[in-house]
Structure formats: C-alpha cells, structure tokens
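CHAIN AND CONFORMATION:

***
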Amino acid sequence: MFSLSIIILSNIVALVLTNPIQEQTVDRQSNKNSLEQAFRKAEKVLNRYYYMMNSDTDHLVHGMLHLLMNNPTSFPFVPNQAMTIAFKNLEEKLGHDETEALAEPLLLAIEENYLNKSKQEPKVKLTDETREKIEAALDKFLDETDFDAHL
C-alpha cells in the first residue's frame, strides 16, 4: 500500500514537472506561427497599398516597406524621419489598423533579431597567452619608435 502511494505520488510530481516544458515548446511554435501569420497579413496590407499608389512618395514608401518586410534586420539603417513619413502615408491611405498590422511583424522581427544577437558569443576569443603577446608587442613597438604623446 505504501509503495503504491509513492508510485502514484511520483507520477503526479513527474506530470506536474514536465507540463511547463511542454507548454513552452507549444508557446514557441505558436509564436513562430503567429509571426508567420503576422508577416502574411502585413504582405497583404502592402499589396493593398501597392494598388492605391499614385505619387512618387507612395512608390518610395512602398519600396522601403517592401525592403523592410523582406529584410527586417535592415531597420536600424533606415532614418527615423523616413519611417515616420512612411507610416503616416500608409495610415492616410489604409487607416490605423492596417498600419498596425504592417508594423507588428516588423517590430517582432527586430526584437527576435536583437535577442538572437544578444545570445551569440563573440566570434574571436583571445587566450591570456595571446593577449600577453599582443601587449608585449605593442609595448616593444611604442618603446622602439618615437611616440608622440599628443597623438
């Protein structure tokens, strides 16, 4: 009787402990699926905008947003004022909800890219021996040359 209760208790504990792990993998997959759905919806919004273009500004805005959709990691290279103009133009043509639908996957992709970069380790790691050799070589170079202190 006692061993049976221990077996049942251990099974319950095992189920409770493994349940959050399963939920995490489901959450990750649902986040990935929701990101894909958000990008599909954003592409539809961008296609609708394409059919409403009637000025050079519209063509520039569409081109910039199209580039950002295909390569969200290039977002930091786009000036803030250009993004403001692009989203204002998009909002005038399609409305606030459509603008949000386009901005959401871009922001999620930027966040995901940032998280991936922060997890990456530096590509080059110097050993202590290498670091000491570099410091010794620099010291030797500075001692042998006429080093001007104001440079």
About this structure: The mean pLDDT is 75. Residues 56-107 form one domain.
